Amino acid sequence: MRGYFGIGSEGLSKAHNLGVILRTGHAFGASFAFTVGSELDDKSVRQTDTSGSSTHLPYYQCPSFDAMVLPENCVLVGVELTEDAIDLPSFRHPLNAAYILGPEKGSLSQPVQAACAHIVKIPTAFCLNVGLAAAITLYDRSILFGSHAPRPLVQRRRGQPGIKKRTGLGQNG
User: Fold this and answer.
1) Which domain holds residue 126?
2) Is 77 part of any domain?
3) Does residue 160 fall inside a structural domain?
4) Where is this region: Disordered (predicted)?
5) What would the pLDDT profile of 108-117 be if each residue is shown by its tens digit?
6) How far apart are CA 84 and CA 95, in angstroms?
């Protein structure tokens, strides 16, 4: 994986959603995680962060967006369902990025949206759970920057040599 990234959210109110975001960030190799304007109970967060990300992933609680500090050359990317957002499958992720998602029942605040270098959206009919949106975003990043082989033009099942054409089917004799 090239570059670095962080994952976080603004205004979370449910500890289990933060636990999922932390676990997802840890699983995809995030360099850090953060929240803005969220004060959640650590014990409740640990119930869904079953990977114990707190021992592997720096986590920053920012009381407000004004108090948030990102590493130098880190690009802030908002994940939000807005009309002018870039569809995630068409987005070229920055090498060094911090992804910020909105709260469970709401959107990223206008100051946060204004500070984002990019706003991306997952092209769905309606908003997804914030933890699921974090996972989809980081999976998309891993496809772009991971060391995966190119996708084949034709899919075959594992261990299957391919389909052989049969001749004479449906003929008697």
Assistant:
1) 4-145
2) yes
3) no
4) 154-173
5) 999 999 999 9
6) 22
Residue 116 identity: C
Give the pair of three-digit tokens for residue 56.
Answer: 């592997």
Q: Which residues pair with 79 in a beta bridge?
A: 101, 120
Confidence of residue 130 (pLDDT cuts 50, 70, 90): very high
Q: Are 102 and 13 in contact (CB under 8 A)?
A: no
Place of tokens 């033009």: 153
Query: Is residue 171 assigned to a domain?
Result: no
- CATH code at position 120: 3.40.1280.10
Residue-wise pLDDT for 25-62, tens only, equals 999 999 999 999 987 877 777 777 778 887 889 999 99
Residue 14's alpha-carbon distances to 66, 84, 167, in angstroms, are 22, 28, 61
Q: How many domains does the chain have?
A: 1
d(CA 118, CA 3): 17
Residue 152 domain-assigned? no
Contact residues for 11 (Cβ-Cβ < 8 A; gap 6+): 36, 37, 38, 102, 103, 106, 109
